[in-house]
């Protein structure tokens, strides 16, 4: 199945270039290309793209608010920010809101398409200059606990993610987990993907092991 993408970009030239790059890339499908946050929310109310390619500097709605909306209403979507804003305030606000990738607009069009594929493969593409600052912030700001110098577990997984991981640790299928939690199997998969990324693992067994080591299970 091709990866479906919604582009949200208010600069007409870039909107056209991003759209053309996606249409030319095998394995990618363009759902819509819109120039405002309101138009993006309208598309999201009617469809569930795999990836939202999002500029933060929209003319009507703050891009961070759009990310939060996606995470609340379409958690199975990945959000790839492509923006001119490289300052800490925008970077960390976007990542904390739920963006899974952050690129600056000086990247090539081939990098945009490759980053979308990377996202769907479980990666988190970030421009090198941004990645350095993220690492510096993590090294300098993460509080260590008295036992082992690691951030508190609550800062790693949300209560909902812990609840879901406990159920999957019992060997339940995603369909059954969704039934017990009152959510769709697609939403379960979206949560599992986020858990894998946060714990830097690639399987259910690894996730359960890491979470157990951290005292979450």
Give the overall shape.
globular
How many domains in all? 2
By CATH reckoning, the class of the largest domain would read: Alpha Beta
Count all strands and give the number.
Answer: 5
The CATH superfamily of the largest domain turns out to be Response regulator
How many strands, which pairing sense, and closed or not: the largest β-sheet? 5 strands, parallel
Identify low-pLDDT runs: 142-155
Mean pLDDT: 84
Sheet with most strands: strand arrangement = 2-1-3-4-5
Percent of sequence in beta strands: 5-15%
Rounded Rg: 18 Å
Question: What report would you give on this structure?
Answer:
The chain is of the alpha/beta class and 217 residues long. It has two domains: 3-138, Response regulator (Rossmann fold, 3-Layer(aba) Sandwich); 153-213, Winged helix-like DNA-binding domain superfamily/Winged helix DNA-binding domain (Arc Repressor Mutant, subunit A). It is 53% helix and 12% strand. It is built from ten helices and five strands. The chain has helices at residues 12-24, 37-46, 63-73, 88-97, 109-120, 128-141, 159-169, 174-181, 185-199, 204-213, and strands at 3-8, 28-34, 51-54, 78-83, 101-104. A five-stranded parallel beta sheet has the order 2-1-3-4-5, with helices on both faces. α4 links the parallel β4 (78-83) and β5. The longest helix is centred in the last third of the chain and has 15 residues, at 185-199.
């Amino acid at each position: 199945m091709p990866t479906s993408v919604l582009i949200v970009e208010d600069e007409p030239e870039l909107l056209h270039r991003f759209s053309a790059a996606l249409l030319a890339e095998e394995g990618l499908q363009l759902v819509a290309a819109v120039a405002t946050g309101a138009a993006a929310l309208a598309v999201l109310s009617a469809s569930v793209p795999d990836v939202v390619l999002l500029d933060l500097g929209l003319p009507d709605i703050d891009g961070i608010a759009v990310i939060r909306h996606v995470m609340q209403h379409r958690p199975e979507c990945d959000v790839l920010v492509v923006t001119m804003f490289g300052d800490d305030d925008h970077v960390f606000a976007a990542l904390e809101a739920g963006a899974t990738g952050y690129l600056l607009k000086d990247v090539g069009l081939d990098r945009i398409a490759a980053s979308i594929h990377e996202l769907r493969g479980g990666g988190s593409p970030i421009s090198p200059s941004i990645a350095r600052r993220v690492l510096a912030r993590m090294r300098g700001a993460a509080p260590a606990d008295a036992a082992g110098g690691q951030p508190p577990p609550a800062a790693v997984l949300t209560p909902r993610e812990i609840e879901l991981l406990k159920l999957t640790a019992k060997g339940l299928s995603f369909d059954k987990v969704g039934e017990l939690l009152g959510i769709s199997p697609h939403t379960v998969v979206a949560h599992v993907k986020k858990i894998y990324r946060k714990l830097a693992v690639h399987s259910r067994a690894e996730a359960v092991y890491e979470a157990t080591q951290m005292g979450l299970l």
